[in-house]
Amino acid sequence: MKKDGRLGNAVTYQYSMLSLKTFTSKSNLQFSEITPNFLKEYEKWMVTEGGKSRTTVGIYLRPLRHLYRKAIQQKDANSENYPFSIDKNDKKYSIPSPRNVKKALMKAEIKLIYDYSPIEGSTEHFYRDLWLFSYLGNGINMKDICLLRYKNIQGDHIYFNRAKTANTKKNEKQIDIIVTEKVNEIIERWGVKPAIPENFIFPFLKEEISIEKQQAIIKQATKQCNKYIKRICKEIGLKSNVSTYTARHSFATVLKRAGANIAFISDALGHSDIKVTENYLGSFEDDAKKEIAKTLTDW
C-alpha cells in the first residue's frame, strides 16, 4: 500500500494489526482461532477497554475480514470456518455499521457560505473558495483538489480519476466536473501561474516530493480548510459541524432533493455501485420523508 501511495489505508492496517496484537498478546495468531465468539470478545474489549466507537471498531475489523478472505483464496484458511456474517440471518459475526450522522447542509445554509464576504485575498477567502469548489465540483475531496492539474481542464469540463480508487478499480470512469462561472472564478483567482498543462492548479503540491510529504501536505490543507469553514459558519450563525466532508454530502443531497436520478448522482460522485450511493444518502432520505409527512396535515 505504501508503494502504491495508499498511505491512509496503510495506516489503517497498521493500527488494526497493533490492536489485534494488544488484545491477543500473541505474535502468531491462527485463522482457525478467529471465531464469531473471538470477534465478539474483541469488539467488547475495544469498546470497554479502549473506548472505541462503533465506527472505529468497524475500521479495525475490515482489514482482518479482508485478510481472512484473501487467506481462503490462497488456501491458507478454511472457508467453512469463515467467521464473518454473509447473510443477516446467519449466526456469525457482523461488523458494526457506523451510525448515520447528518452531514449535509440545506441550500439556504450553503447560500450563507456562498454569500459570505471574507477579506479579499485572505487565507479565509482562499479556504472558503476551496470549500465551495468542492461543493460545486461533484463533492471532490481535498486530496483530489490538491492533485488536479491544468491538463485536467478540457474546455468547460474538468476530468479526473479519484485518487482513493486509483489502485482498486479497472477501467474506472473519469469524473466530469462542469466548469461553471463560479468554478472558473475560483481557478482564476487562486490557480498557480503559468497555467500550463503539467502544473498543479492549486498551490499545495510540487513535483518530486515523497508520497509521505504529499500526504502530510494534503492532511494539513484539509485541516486548514476545516478550521476556516468552521470559523465562517460560526460567524454567519450556522450551528452545523461543517467540514470538507460536508461539501461532498451536500452536493449529493442537494441533487437528490432536486429530483436527480440516483444513477446520475452515483456517476457524479464516482461511486462503484448505486447501492453505495443509496447507503450514502440513506440518512438524508429520512429527513425528506419527515418533511413530506408534515405536509399531510399542513392545512
Q: Largest sheet, order of strands side by side?
A: 1-2-3
| Ends distance | 59 Å
Structural class: mainly alpha
What is the molecular shape?
A: globular
CATH superfamily membership of the largest domain? Intergrase catalytic core
**Overall mean pLDDT score?**
88
Question: Helical stretch count?
Answer: 12
- Please indicate the percent range of residues in DSSP E strands (runs of 2 or more): under 5%
Q: What are the segments in which pLDDT stays under 50 over at least 5 consecutive residues?
A: none
Question: Overview of this structure, please?
Answer:
This protein is mostly helical. It has two domains: 7-81, DNA polymerase, domain 1, CATH 1.10.150; 107-295, Intergrase catalytic core (hpI Integrase, Chain A, Orthogonal Bundle). The protein is 53% helix and 3% strand. It has a three-stranded antiparallel sheet. Helix 5 runs parallel beside helix 9 (244-257).
